[in-house]
Amino acid sequence: AQSVSQHNHHVILSEAASLELGCNYSYGGTVNLFWYVQYPGQHLQLLLKYFSGDPLVKGIKGFEAEFIKSKFSFNLRKPSVQWSDTAEYFCAVNGIGLNDMRFGAGTRLTVKP
Amino acid sequence: DTAVSQTPKYLVTQMGNDKSIKCEQNLGHDTMYWYKQDSKKFLKIMFSYNNKELIINETVPNRFSPKSPDKAHLNLHINSLELGDSAVYFCASSQGLAGGRADTQYFGPGTRLTVL
After folding, report:
1. Greater confidence, A94 or A19?
2. Shortest CA distance to B89 belongs to which of B23, B37, B54?
3. pLDDT at A99
4. CB-CB under 8 Å, A97 with B101
5. Nearest-CA neighbor of B25 among B1, B55, B51, B5?
6. Which of B52, B54, B53, B56 is nearest to B44 (CA)?
7. How far is CA A86 from the centre of its chain?
8. Helices then strands (H, E): number in chain A?
9. What average pLDDT does the structure give for chain A?
10. Which of B105, B106, B111, B112 to mutate to test the interface with A (most CBs of A within 10 A)?
11. Low-confidence residues of chain B, pLDDT below 70?
């Protein structure tokens, strides 16, 4: 069965530190990949997505992610985090159909000022 | 201007009751979804629906039923509420893509359901 793993449950960083959140999926076919962010008390918003083409994807707010097909990974990165990046981050994978959407368990990021 | 809206935002009710949550999108998308987010923030898809097909996640109890009066609305009806139904329910919409996949999903603000 398709699954999505986010390695870190809770990450705590100081402002200006670099960020990398891991995401691995298990699915044998072609997938669409997403990172969503949920700020405290708000709904999920798209950070970035990968469907095809350049495996290094740039998103909003300085985030980027790299798709490495051989590792079934889609890690999220940001070179310098800000306090306002404090949120829950979700990796998601869309497989063969509309309902075949799997979210990872989420990683809570806390950025200390 | 809200793209995906849900009502109510909070819903507190007793076990055994029947309740509905409404969802509307004004993005012109052809597909809508319902998700359940539990207390540990785990997000699980319950249904996806476009104007042709309803797809039900097999783990969703049949007490939950989506109803779509038109393309812009997908309401969620829950019968005989149980304690374990307490969660935040998110509605979302997207445009379907060729090959049957979904493009970016736009989420509503969520409905926090508490069953006492």
Report:
1. A19
2. B37
3. 66
4. yes
5. B5
6. B56
7. 14
8. 0, 12
9. 92
10. B105
11. 1-2, 51-52, 98-100
Q: What is the mean pLDDT of residues A97-104?
A: 77
> Which range, of A38-42, A72-76, B68-72, B97-101, averages the lowest pLDDT?
B97-101
Kindly list the distances between the CA atom of residue B81 and the CA atoms of B10, B22, B87, B105, in Å, as whole numbers in the listed order: 15, 17, 12, 28
Q: Do A46 and B47 touch (CB under 8 A)?
A: no
DSSP string, B19-74: EEEEEEE-S--SEEEEEEE-TT--EEEEEEEESS-EEE-TTS-TTEEEE-SSTTB-
Contact A46 B105 (CB under 8 A): yes
Across the interface, whether the CB atoms of B104 and A49 are under 8 A apart is answered yes
Q: Which contiguous run of DSSP H or E holds residue B87?
A: strand B87-94
Which of chain B's residues have a Cβ under 8 Å away from the Cβ of A43?
A: 4, 90, 107-110
Residues above pLDDT 90, as percent of chain B: 62
> A–B: how many Cβ contacts below 8 A?
66
pLDDT at B59: 84
CA distance B53 to B80: 26
Pairing of the two strands A107-112 and A44-50:
unpaired
Higher pLDDT, A98 or A88: A88
